[in-house]
Amino acid sequence: MAAPESGDGNNGAARMVTLISSDNTRFEVEAAAASLSQTLQLTILDGGGGGGDGIPLPNVDSATLSKVLEYCIKHAPAAANGGAPNATAVDRAELERFDNEFVNIDQSVLYSLIMAAHNLEIEGLQSLVAKKVADMIKGKSPMEIRRTLGFPDPTPEEQAEMNAHMLEYGWAYE
Amino acid sequence: MYRQEAAVRRSNHVRDNKLLVDRDIYVQKRSMETLQVLCDDIVVEILVRLPSKSVLRCRAVCKNWLRITTDPSFLTLHADASAARDDRTPGLDDSERHSCVSQRPGLYIVCNPATRQWTNMPVLAPQPCFTAFPCGFYRHGPSGQYRLLCRGIVLVGEEEEESDIANYYGMGAAANYYYILTAGGGRPRQLLRQRAPADRPLLRIGYQVPVSHRGVLIWCSLHPMAPRMGKMLTFHTVSEAFRLMATPSHGQEVAILFELDRELCVATIPPCVSRLDIWVLHDYAAETWT
Prior knowledge:
The structure holds 2 protein chains of 2 kinds. Chain A is mainly alpha-helical. Chain A folds into 2 domains: 16-138, 2-Layer Sandwich (Potassium Channel Kv1.1, Chain A), CATH 3.30.710; 139-174. Helix content of chain A is 54%, strand content 7%. Chain A contains 8 helices and 3 strands, in the order ββααβαααααα. The longest helix of chain A is centred in the middle third of the chain and has 19 residues, at 62-80. The termini of chain A are far apart. Among the domains of chain B are: 2-86, no CATH class; 93-208, no CATH class. In chain B, the strands form 4 sheets. Chain B has a 4-stranded antiparallel β-sheet with strand order 4-5-6-7, with no helix packed on it. In chain B, a hairpin with a 6-residue loop joins strand 6 (175-182) and strand 7 (189-191). The relative contact order of chain B is 0.08. At the A-B interface, helix 5, helix 6, helix 7 and helix 8 of A face helix 1, helix 2 and helix 3 of B.
């Protein structure tokens, strides 16, 4: 099994791979950035995605994929260093600032990102978006959570269950 | 390759649901409506990051979330994630936050006072003539499971009289084993016979409650030889092995064992009774006391 390429390809230039979104847009990125995705990493290690072939991603549209790749390109150098050890405090602060900015987005985009991060298995992005949604839920009542996340209005039965829960666990709502 | 197929199937599934939801007249915005139909993995990933109170509220959000957040695997994940966030010593605070009570002999239940939930321990009854005494309750760090260490006493040849005191003292060929019960787990597990077993428990009274210190359960006087040798019996909750540990006093009876400011302390009464010595464990590995 070949070691993951860290950017210095065989010809001196970084190895590039092509990803194709569901709406047939082609994205060319460094293999190191795309390899943040566990799903893609296997294909790339097998030598896929180079030349004219490209890796089709039928469940990620181009808008979402460009957002995902923005994250991967930003995080690839730190990941190549094995995370924290070599990173300076400045680098870490910069990444943190980038992450905060990155998830400060419209809910529909955030939703697409969750799905894409999950399908592509990008661990850092998965926890970043999960944390963002968790922050949206924290401290809210069940009804507020449903509204925030755009659930349909509860049926009378669901409403009754919600009220019963609030009565039983009143201390959790203090 | 199959990974991608699975991903495609998953996305088709979500897309179908999305169509259904889009038709729903209640939905005003096309934003996160499908978070409701996200696969369980994603919901778990989100909810596991919430504090306990929020998790409890999430149970009222919808049936799906109720199912997810009451699943034992979710609770274990959540307990681990909370412990990692708070940077607490596992095995100590967690077993303090949970408590284990005996419902009737041989049947124990574990409750979480914070969420007021409870679960049954497996029933310890591998043989018909059997009495079990709970020795200590702890959280197994690596697995995050709540476990109960039990001393089982098998009475050989005397059937269905296991709680009879006369029989208890009269038996000659009693075999003693330790068992570990795991909350939500399968059958009780028998520990291999240990070289440092504890004294037989006093019937009716059972064992004294051990002090839990940094993942180690400690009793001061259970081992038959321990008081004379100036040792205490310890049980490591990660490796699940017994060990004898030196006490600070020489030849003196250890009076009280307790924990103060996260340090293990021992109070001893020297021969001149007007004094009370308190020893603090300085270094667990080196067994030095100050």
